[in-house]
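Sequence of Type 1 glutamine amidotransferase domain-containing protein (Kribbella yunnanensis).
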Amino acid sequence: MTRVLIALTSHSELGDTGRKTGFYVSEAAEPWAVFTEAGYEVGLVSVAGGRPPVDGLDENDPVQQKFLAAVDLEHTPVAAELDATAYDAIFFAGGHGTMWDFPSADDLLKLAADIYERGGVVAAVCHGPSALVNLKLSDGAYLIDGKNVAGFTNAEEAAVGLTDVVPFLLADELTARGAIHHPADNFAVQTVADGRLVTGQNPQSAQLTAETTVKALAG
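Predicted 3D structure, token representation.
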């Protein structure tokens, strides 16, 4: 049985705007649907454990409702409680909250590195690639150094009015770590696969990024 882990942010404050954030529900729900359809066992993990904060929920979206009904959001484990050998892939869902806690979530990053170095797939969508900014392999190299990636673009951050709110611009930071960032038009579907690294640009890319992860797992 192929097992995939969906990683979620535990950060709920959108900088000092007074607005709430969290994980963007569609970016977990749509991949969950793709993975369960493929016959995978899907687990959740969050940075702080317990109930992660939810953002972007569409009460009328059947995929999101099915996801929320099927998973135990109240009791997500932390990475330190999990064993990398039990998982074939990890998928970092986005949401602006990830920008604050994914880059410093050391246990989560180590879990992802271990999955990758065992031959597994690391995938991320939208702001989820913020996890890749500080993700190092056992030799000390950044996983994304020299790799082709997608992620929320500077133009998209400007379009949603949060350029000066986020702690860094994701596309710039990915590039600074040696990644080759491939931006598409604002909110166009864009998924980039580089071997066992699969990344997507925005919420619109969540389903394709998950489908591409399935292909990467199939070898």
